[in-house]
Amino acid sequence: MTDPRTTVVVITHNRRPELLRTLDRLAELPEQPEVFVTDNGSTDGTSAAVARHHPHVRLLRPGRNLGAVGRNLAVRRVRTPYVAFCDDDSWWAPGALAGAADLLDRYAALGAVTARIVVEPDGTEDPIVEELRNSPVPGPRWLPGPALGSFLAAATVLRTDAFRRAGGFNPRLWLGGEEELLAADLAADGWWLAYADDLTIHHHPSTARDSRRRRQDGIRNTLWFTWLRRPARPALRRTLHLARTVPRDTASLRAFAEATAALPWILRERRVLPPEVEGRLRLLEDSQRRSTARSYVG
């Protein structure tokens, strides 16, 4: 059951064993997708190992760590109508890529579909899955699942052209909640995002991660998105909420300092979302404040 509709894009940095495991799993998929790997400046022999063990993978080596922009670099070369992202410690289940492509084929206004996340090695659902299932975002009745206000890059299949027209991932955000800005811009372009419970991706969280840096960047990126796209009053409300609720430590302080230092860029790039998209975000924001699945802890 080969399926030529979807290309898989993976970014990696110094996680050679995890990446090779992911590529082994992707090579076993019945869809046999083309796979791009952007090696974000690894120093652990990642590129050589990929070339040796998976010679059919399209390997990109920008020579430095581009963060999420490494995905943009690969998508420029994608020739299929759909692109699926996964991280170097996650992999798509058999049939999931074909199922996502079927949904995107069927619904012309569907821009992205996010899968159920199963955490390995225990095979349990990620806590955020319940939040996705119970998304408060209103959507049209034709949607194949709950409407979403954002997506998880490591568990989502998108329309390639929609991704490109929206500009991909913003280089300033690097990594950590980088999806929120792109998701809002996709919605502003008229695309719907949905969750599909019958699609699955597996995630075996890597221990090679800097949780403090990821949390710092996540807080900063949330602030940047808020200031770039939200109207003044909701932006102020969300900023104050973050100031009250993030951990009172050096990482949070640096995040707010970095965010504030970029205010000239924010003012140049600020573009408020259409009212209907802003309305969806308000509902999502209220839900996230009550969520136990989301927190700025890394």
UniProtKB/TrEMBL annotation:
What does the UniProt keyword field contain? Glycosyltransferase, Transferase
A Pfam family this protein belongs to? Glycos_transf_2
Describe the location of the Glycosyltransferase 2-like domain by residue ranges: 7-132
Q: What is its EC number?
A: 2.4.-.-
Q: Which GO terms describe its molecular function?
A: glycosyltransferase activity
List the InterPro entries. Glyco_trans_2-like, Glycosyltransf_2, Nucleotide-diphossugar_trans
Q: Which family does it belong to?
A: Belongs to the glycosyltransferase 2 family.
Q: What is this protein called?
A: Glycosyltransferase family 2 protein
